[in-house]
Amino acid sequence: MSTATTSSTETNAAERSHSLLGDYSVLFKPRVSAMVLLTAAGGFYLGCLRTGISPFSMLLLHTMLGVAIVTCGSGALNQALERATDRMMPRTAARPMAQHRIGLAHGLILGFLLTFGGAAYLALYTNLLSGTLTLLTAVAYVTIYTPLKRITSLNTFIGAFPGALPPLIGWTAARGVIEWPGIALFAILFVWQFPHFMAIGWLYRADYKLAGIRVAATQDPIEDAARGTVAQALFYAVLMIPVALWPTFLHITGWPYAIAAFALSIYYLVATIRFASITKNPNDPENRKVARQLLRVSVIYLPLLLMAMALNAQGHLLLR
Ligand code: HEM
Ligand SMILES: CC(C)=CCC/C(C)=C/CC/C(C)=C/COP(=O)(O)OP(=O)(O)O
What we know:
mainly alpha; 2 domains; 0% strand; disordered N terminus; binds protoporphyrin IX containing FE; binds farnesyl diphosphate
């Protein structure tokens, strides 16, 4: 399938509704933001269990609200900076700032207010460390990762740092300090992103090339691009297995989680191995299927892993 015919839910949503609210919902990247919130909630939940307090409190609400506000703000700032390149790519062309439905000043002011306001809210209602970490996450995403997309394919590695911080933020909101279980959650998220994004990079290779965005998949010739993309995806999918087991080595989860994490990580690895078939004939349009499958498995893997962690940690930590 050519990129010109590629449609995404995001584009459809923007086409359906040109109301300001509809435009804001695209600006705030709702699917990515929802997953960010889920990972932050996971870190918060485990941190509360470690302390022995109920996770279901006003503190949970403050943490979720603060992280959500900053995530939405940083999404708006990212789209303000990328309005020109977003306009060039079918996947993102309908975004409100790319189409000038939301002006530059509007997007920047909204993005700044939400990013700094949300971080201040977190600092006031959770703790200074969580507010600072969240602000650092947004700053790294907007001022380092975003401009690097046009400069080097290393941007994916750099972007994986802010991408992995939300569960650690959840942990610090509950505990007030950075501790090994929070770092283990950071590591899980960090590693998870590579097969996730290698699939996306391949799916939208033509888009990225059009806009001059550098990712592993945009290398030339296409054979090198396929090999480089697959090598990264496989390396991190294998690494995912020990890293996903880390919470059990740290005794915040027990064997039931370890078994679930192992099975899920094998499932992620199998999807990545299937994806590796793109190297056989990189130009085959059928390759999109295995890339799409890997993307789907990546977004199923994470909630299931966090759920297994939360369920097992509860019994495990209460029994200790
Ligand atoms: C280097 C890091 C990452 C990059 C470059 C990246 C990039 C992307 C892109 C471009 C999409 C859009 C795909 C589409 O429209 O079909 C996407 C989808 C998504 N991303 Fe990521 N992402 C990264 C990390 C993360 C993180 C840390 C999370 C959340 C914890 C996340 C969660 C999601 C979700 C939930 C979707 C929607 C998938 C779907 O619609 O099926 N991503 N990502
Ligand atoms: C708490 C907090 C501030 C969280 C921020 C969320 C965050 C840093 C996510 C990082 C993951 C990431 C790089 C996603 C999208 O890529 P992209 O922006 O390149 O996607 P696009 O091509 O759709 O614009």
